[in-house]
Design a protein that fits this description.
The protein is an all-alpha fold. It is about 65% helix and about 5% strand. The chain is built from ten helices and three strands; from the N terminus they run ααααβαααααββα. It has helices at about 15-50, 55-60, 70-95, 110-135, 145-180, 185-200, 205-210, 210-230, 235-250, 275-295; strands at about 140, 255, 265-270. The protein has a three-stranded mixed sheet with strand order 1-3-2. The longest helix is centred in the middle third of the chain and has 34 residues, at about 145-180.
């Protein structure tokens, strides 16, 4: 087994702090700059298809959900393709190292580890929703929309992993590698990543409900994803976990305050930020037990950085 942590790759290739700064600027330009233009093109494309008049286009920009569920989902996720590209350009072009080095220090990505992260989190997600249903059964209902669900699922299964993987490549991969130039302390890197991961979620609808309880959930999740990545020496588990988290929220159980309204199988009107925060802590603990304390052959040994 390769015991090299992906943190060690932070010093491979061209690894000066200045290059990381240029890399960050490049990523933001491609993600937010070119990504915004791609979003605008997608909006225009769907507007033309639906026969929306040019004078109504500004209203569409302010309310892309009026396009419909699937066009809105595609429009909101198209920038993450550019986000992914931005990280690739920074790693390959600015740092002159292999792209997989932002994921793992091994010679190849271990897809079994990605699958283990996905499966373990999906399982604890089911358990969490089951507990919520047992406590508040009257708030749950089944949404039976077979054609709509299948159409949306096809799009979500393609775009959601791109969205979540691009975030992991940046927040758990590139940013943590950059931060390791200052310190390889796991607590420092987990706190740094948790804070930076929470910031882009300020605008989510559920944050408006109770920011004091919802934002800590994003912070905890971001910090936990970093912690398991540092313990395992790769971001493979984090890639799988994040994809499972967002696909579960989009396809299995959704709620009114969700950032995206989807035709998930189950719909609940119950939204309790305190319950969600406690449930998240328990889910993180169960996930840790599943992947590090049970059937270790699924994920291998913990890998510790020599940095």
């Amino acid at each position: 087994m390769n015991h090299t942590s992906y943190l060690d790759a932070a010093r491979q290739g061209k690894a000066s702090p200045g290059r990381y700064l240029v890399g960050l600027l490049l990523i933001f330009f491609v993600w937010l700059g070119i990504g915004s233009m791609a979003t605008g093109v997608a909006l225009l494309f769907f507007a033309l298809i639906q026969g929306i008049r040019p004078d109504q286009f500004l209203d569409l920009v302010n309310d892309p959900a009026s396009l419909g569920m699937i066009p809105n989902f595609i429009t909101l996720n198209i920038s993450f393709v550019l986000f992914f590209l931005g990280v690739w350009l920074a790693v390959r072009g600015i740092h002159r190292r292999r792209f997989r080095s932002v994921i793992t220090g091994a010679d190849a990505v271990n897809w079994k580890r990605v699958g283990a992260g996905f499966g373990a989190w999906f399982l604890v997600g089911i358990l969490g929703s089951l507990v919520e249903y047992l406590l508040w059964p009257e708030t749950f209902s089944v949404q039976i929309q077979p054609l709509t669900f299948l159409s949306f699922a096809l799009v979500a299964l393609i775009l959601t992993p791109i969205q979540t993987t691009s975030e992991e490549l940046f927040f758990r991969g590139y940013l943590v590698q950059a931060g390791s130039l200052l310190s390889c302390n796991p607590l420092f890197l987990s706190l740094l990543s948790g804070i930076l991961f929470a910031l882009p979620h300020f605008g989510n609808p559920e944050v408006a409900e109770n920011a004091l309880l919802v934002l800590p959930s994003y912070f905890i999740l971001g910090g936990f994803l970093t912690w398991i990545s540092l313990k395992d020496g790769t971001i493979e588990l984090a890639i799988g976990l994040h994809a499972a988290n967002n696909l579960f929220a989009g396809l299995v159980v959704t709620f009114p305050q969700s950032a995206l309204q989807t035709p998930a199988i189950f719909y609940t009107t119950h939204f309790d930020p305190l319950f969600n925060l406690v449930a998240l802590l328990i889910q993180c603990f169960l996930f840790y037990l599943l992947v590090f304390k049970s059937r270790r052959s699924l994920v291998g040994e913990a890998i510790v950085s020599n940095g």
